[in-house]
Amino acid sequence: MNPRDIPPEAFHASGAEVQALDFGYVRSPDQDHATPAQHPVVVIGAGPVGLSLAIDLAQRGQRVVVLDNDHKLSIGSRAICFAKRTLEIWDRLGVGQRMVDKGVSWNLGKVFLKDEQLYEFNLLPEEGHERPAFINLQQYYAEAYLVERALQLPGIDIRWHNKVTAVQSRDGGALLSIDTPDGAYQIDAQWLVACDGARSPTRQMLGLESKGRIFQDRFLIADVKLADEANFPTERWFWFDPPFHPNQSVLLHRQPDNVWRIDFQLGWDADPEEEKKPENIIPRVKALLGADAQFELDWASVYTFACLRMDQFVHGRVVFAGDSAHGVSPFGARGANSGVQDAENLAWKLDWVLKGRASPALVATYGPEREYAADENLCNSTRATDFITPKSEVSRLFRDAALHLAREHAFARRIVNSGRLSVPATLYASPLSTPDTDAFVGTQVPGAVLLDAPLTKQGQPTWLLRELGPDFTLLVFGPAPAWTRDLPGVKVLQIGIDVTDHQARAAQRLDALPGTAYLVRPDQHVCARWRTPTEAAVRSALAHATAAAL
Ligand SMILES: Cc1cc2nc3c(=O)[nH]c(=O)nc-3n(C[C@H](O)[C@H](O)[C@H](O)COP(=O)(O)OP(=O)(O)OC[C@H]3O[C@@H](n4cnc5c(N)ncnc54)[C@H](O)[C@@H]3O)c2cc1C
Fold first, then answer.
1. Closest Cα to residue 524, out of 30, 85, 68?
2. Distance between CA 251 and CA 435 in Å, rounded?
């Protein structure tokens, strides 16, 4: 079926029906061109990253071709934990509420040693944020809602059954060879973005590498659908050495549709084919849930993992995003979450360059910004993996000592690492930020993602992030100076006039006084701030933030 003819209700169907959606092949007029058709942006890969990027670009008025060799959504639940920042980005893309409505929201995690709870942690301990710390949602649902949104936007041309077989990078773009069910064709991309996953054929075709560590351990994922409501609350539960799975770790999470994700650490010697057999999975699940538990297996997989990244994400006009650029272990839920942040970092930069508002130097800044973020994710993911799967007797002794101390001592809880969960990177050394010249306290330094806060507008509730413009926003606490009206492409948001900070949370989170101003990028990162802004300072920060001087 032509994907544009799929009825909207098909995207709201059950998990099995959504996974069965089959996006038909549609012949493109490009296939009849004598010479390769030219496109401003081509994205390879309709996973969560490629789709988010395409939607962001299309919402900015760009035309995007998305090529995918497959014709289905992700098989199996795969990524389930989507972070607050990802939801905020998806809000901008028109799908955040959809994800939250279907997903299971959670903020609390608990850590157990054997059958005793060591401690619990709250990932969002304060009020006044629109989105929870996390939702759990099967990746196929997330992709379904993104595909549905993409199909609503006239600028996006998703071509399923289009396998990229060769990429030739050259000045001014890249030439792609594509295989389809009725033959091969070529297209020319002014900009090519490879969102083609961890194995990234594009990376290989260009002779590039992703380097890092492969971890010698195996994990079994069992998604089980319970017949009745389970006794577990909607929290992340992590056990070290539980009685039902001795000497290993176990992670339990709730998903929509009364499905529970259980990750069992197996050790390196486990035979993946044997472990995947239902007769071997079911006793493990019963040991956790109880011998009488009624459930059916929804999906199972045995995985190993690696922490890898490419040295550079930008290669001329070819840019890598998501798993193609970097790969992390699942502990900390950083894979898709960081990939969606890549997409949002890149989208506005490509848009500005394609509109001639900035030079390609702006796209080049995607490299250092997201490579830095990838390093932070890799560091967290590697540490968690080393803690969960100690590789030497000394590491295990250290790990076990930390676990025993954590029961009583807060300092040891900082050492215990069952996966520090995804938070957006603060781009401290961003070339697009203007260093502070005034004194501020708190976390909202240039390079940080703006924190959300509840506001009212004409008496109605709203949120700070929702009130930002699609391009730059100058937030001013109190009346904005008259010259701010002449700033090109900048939305001026006056707190106290256009919107009311009725709980004073925006002022508190941004350490704001009357007159304080924050310049916020299109991807909602702070890039400059002042106690009393001047026109020259703001214009200079804008030039800086669009790489005009690079
Ligand atoms: C078990 C497991 C649990 C996970 N849990 C989490 C989690 O809780 N939270 C989280 O954030 N992340 C998690 N992840 C990671 C997450 O699944 C990935 O980071 C995410 O899917 C990456 O998205 P992507 O769009 O970069 O790539 P992918 O989702 O891999 O998409 C790549 C796309 O490219 C297409 N493609 C490949 N080659 C070609 C070609 N030659 N031509 C055209 N198209 C091509 C593929 O068909 C595919 O659609 C988990 C992963 C696993 C395996």
1. 85
2. 42
Residue 333 Cβ contacting ligand 1 at under 6 Å = yes
Which H or E run includes 219? strand 211-226
Element containing residue 287 per DSSP (H, E) = helix 278-289
CB burial string 262-290: b at 16+ within 10 A, e below: bbbbbeeebeeeebeeeeebbebbebbbe
The DSSP letter of residue 355 is T
Helix or strand (DSSP H, E) at 261: strand 259-265
| Atom 1 (ligand 1) nearest CA | 78
CB 266 within 8 A of CB 248: yes
226 vs 232: CA distance, rounded Å: 12
Looking at residue 2, what is its pLDDT? 86
For residue 169, give the amino acid letter: S
Report the chain's C-alpha Rg in angstroms: 24
Q: What is the mean pLDDT of residues 198-217?
A: 93
Which has more confidence, 419 or 61?
61
Q: How far apart are alpha carbons 463 and 453 in whole angstroms?
A: 6
Secondary structure element (H or E) that encloses residue 102, with its range: helix 96-102
* Residue 372: other Cβ atoms inside 10 A: 17
Residue 261 to residue 255: CA distance in whole angstroms? 7
Question: Counting runs of H as helices and runs of E as strands, what totals does the chain give?
Answer: 15, 25
**Of ligand 1's atoms, which has the minimum distance to the CA of residue 301?**
1
Q: What amino acid occupies position 159?
A: R
Residue 427 backbone dihedrals phi, psi, to 5 degrees: -85, 70
- In the reported structure, the alpha carbon of residue 198 is separated from the centroid of ligand 1 by a whole-number distance in angstroms of 7
Q: Could you read off the pLDDT of 34-67 as tens digits, one per residue?
A: 999 999 999 999 999 999 999 999 999 999 999 9
For residue 403, is pLDDT > 90? no
- Contact of 90 with 131, CB cutoff 8 Å: no
Q: Are 44 and 194 in contact (CB under 8 A)?
A: yes
Residues 329/381, Cβ–Cβ less than 8 Å: yes
Are the C-beta atoms of residues 79 and 142 closer than 8 Å to each other? yes
| Residue 86 CA, closest ligand 1 atom number | 11
The SS3 assignment for 477 reads strand
Distance between start and end Cα atoms, the chain: 48
Helices (H), 122-215: 139-152, 201-205
Q: Edge to edge, what strands does the sheet with 517-520 contain?
A: 490-495, 472-477, 517-520, 526-530
The closest-lying atom of ligand 1 relative to the alpha carbon of residue 196 is: 34
Instruction: For residues 153 and 150, give the distance between their C-alpha atoms in angstroms, rounded to a whole number.
Output: 5
Contact 483, 431 (CB under 8 A): no
Atom 53 of ligand 1, nearest CA residue: 78
Q: What are the tokens at 127? A: 């009020």
